[in-house]
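Summarise what follows for lecture notes:
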Amino acid sequence: MKQLNTHIEINASASKVWKILTDFDSYPQWNPFIRAVSGEVKQGARLEVQLQPPGGNSMTFRPKVLVAEPERELRWLGRLLVPGIFTGEHCFQIEPRDRDRIRFIHSEVFSGLLVPFLANSLDTNTKSGFEKMNQALKARAEK
């Protein structure tokens, strides 16, 4: 098992950040890591997510939404091929600090047989992708 955790302070309301985060149609305009998402933001829904880690190849997953709590958390679970090979539980959390300031936590827990072989890429390319997305979300929310 491997976990990546990133966070950023954003000078915007939880409502504004949630709206940007769940406006999947606008992702190609601003998101350098998650290039496209389609599907409904609701628990149990199936999404189609296209990731483009810096220095890595584009990948498309069809994760299932585990949590969709407005202005608080969006979490999904995706798998590569079959269970046990490579699974990622991706999470976006919004923690209000005050009326117009939040902490955005972007994390993922990886498990499966391929994790040890992909650990270096996860620590570099994938983590960099998380951080670039965080910065882009901050810039979009604060303008």
About this structure: The radius of gyration is 14 Å. The chain is about 30% helix and 40% strand. Residues 115-142 form the longest helix (28 residues).
